[in-house]
Amino acid sequence: MSPLLTTAAVLLVLIALAHSYLGEKFLIGPLLKDPNVLIFKRAPLTKNILRFAWHITTVAWWGMAAAILDMKGADGKNLLSMYAYIITFAVTGAMILAWTKGKHAAWIVFFAIAGCLFAAA
């Protein structure tokens, strides 16, 4: 197992945990408690959909971390999957960087994950 793949997987697990915890504490939780958000009054199911949609990202990232740990890297196996992940995490980093003008530091982690995977390919 390449240390680069392990590093990418660990970074992904950590950012997933941070995403769920910090998102729930500072974004989702307060938003769902805000009585001024009209859509929650009109469609109560929306609260649950928003919460599970937020946290399902964490579950997906954990699954991706497990798949990364299963990759072989430089020996030529799983390269299509690896390049798909490289592109996915590079684009994710670029979107976060662009949309937040660099104010949300997650772009650094996603570029680091893409870089680890690229170097291991």
What features would you describe in this structure?
- With 121 residues, the protein is mainly α.
- It has one domain (3-120).
- The chain has five helices and no strands.
- The protein has helices spanning 3-33, 38-42, 45-69, 79-100, 106-120.
- α1 (3-33) runs antiparallel to α5 (106-120).
- The radius of gyration is 17 Å and the shape is elongated.
- The model has no long low-confidence stretch (mean pLDDT 92).
Please give the structural blueprint.
Elements: H1 3-33, H2 38-42, H3 45-69, H4 79-100, H5 106-120
Helix pairs in contact: 1-3, 1-5, 4-5
Unreliable residue runs: none
Strand content: under 5%
- Report the strand count: 0
Please tell me the total number of domains.
Answer: 1
Biggest sheet record: none
Mean pLDDT across every amino acid position: 92
Rg calculated over all Cα atoms: 17 Å
Distance from N terminus to C terminus (CA atoms, Å) equals: 12 Å
Shape: elongated
**Portion of residues within helices:** over 70%
Structural class: mainly alpha
Oligomer: single chain
Q: Would you list the SSEs in sequence order as H and E? A: HHHHH
Provide a count of the helices: 5
Keywords: Membrane, Transmembrane, Transmembrane helix
Transmembrane segments: 52-70, 82-99, 105-120
